[in-house]
Amino acid sequence: MTTSSADTRSVDSRREELAAGLKETRQLIEKLSHEAGRDTVPELLPVTKFHPAEDIALLAELGITDVAENREQEARAKAEELSDVHFHMIGQVQTKKANHVARWAHSVHSVDTEKLAVALNRGVENAGRDVLPVFIQVSFDGDTARGGVPLDGVAELAQIIEDLPNLDLRGLMVVPPLDTDAKEVFTTVRELANKLGEQLERTMKLSAGMSADLADAIASGTDIVRVGTGIMGARPLG
């Protein structure tokens, strides 16, 4: 199959768009980190949901090895097509799909129940793979319908995960509820992650911060930021 010059121009144009988005986002993260007085900048995890595998392949050409996805079936298809890219699950996971997620996910940022943790642990065993890094998703306001475990349930779920041999607890993830003070949310969960780390005697990371609340997340000490539109542009229509 041959590639027309128009197709080549289209691919080159898209690569340039992604490169520009990456550059601008990285510069913003560095600027915000400097303003917050941080010695290090958080890890950037591009969010690629709804964008085609071809875009992610171009990101890989630009040096991106890790991306985040929200929907299991979409992410699984992309992971099968792009074996050199690490796909991280940041969306809610139905327990019945845990076996699938455990096969393709490089990490899961949205563990919020014992049932899901046990299902992922079983899925890792069935897949015959190495341990799966996971983050506990925190529900700041206690409304678990949107995903997450309430603040007062984090320690218990953490201990459950610690007792599962195929999961490796790496930290906490949070998305500020609407009409809340994002900085208060991030600061509270950062402190909770630090406290959990002291109890477990290892560092617990914080996965928090998207385009709209990046400054507050970075100032509060997040370790991983998840940026979609700033890098990928508007979602494709269809």
Automatic annotation (TrEMBL):
PROSITE patterns: UPF0001. GO terms for molecular function: pyridoxal phosphate binding. Keywords: Pyridoxal phosphate. Residues 32-236 form the Alanine racemase N-terminal domain. HAMAP family: PLP_homeostasis (MF_02087). Belongs to the pyridoxal phosphate-binding protein YggS/PROSC family. Pyridoxal 5'-phosphate (PLP)-binding protein, which is involved in PLP homeostasis. This is Pyridoxal phosphate homeostasis protein. It comes from Corynebacterium ammoniagenes (Brevibacterium ammoniagenes).
